């Protein structure tokens, strides 16, 4: 099952969990708990910073940078694709 065809800023907590599972299967447990505990929706995901990831339990700086770089670019890329689909 894939994400609904809505912009990432509209993603529910469940859709964020699905996206994280696809992107980060090895860190899914840690991120899964944080997403649920802190009610992280797509809108929140787009705004996360490294210090916030640390507060969510992602202590390793390299991992923080990977999570910030890949999800944000991936989400923004998904958003661009979605916008093209909507405007067609």
Automatic annotation (TrEMBL):
<feature type="domain" description="SAM">
    <location>
        <begin position="11"/>
        <end position="70"/>
    </location>
</feature>
<dbReference type="InterPro" id="IPR013761">
    <property type="entry name" value="SAM/pointed_sf"/>
</dbReference>
<dbReference type="InterPro" id="IPR001660">
    <property type="entry name" value="SAM"/>
</dbReference>
<dbReference type="GO" id="GO:0009898">
    <property type="term" value="C:cytoplasmic side of plasma membrane"/>
</dbReference>
<protein>
    <recommendedName>
        <fullName>SAM domain-containing protein</fullName>
    </recommendedName>
</protein>
<dbReference type="Pfam" id="PF07647">
    <property type="entry name" value="SAM_2"/>
</dbReference>
<dbReference type="GO" id="GO:0007169">
    <property type="term" value="P:cell surface receptor protein tyrosine kinase signaling pathway"/>
</dbReference>
<dbReference type="InterPro" id="IPR052268">
    <property type="entry name" value="SAM_domain-containing_protein"/>
</dbReference>
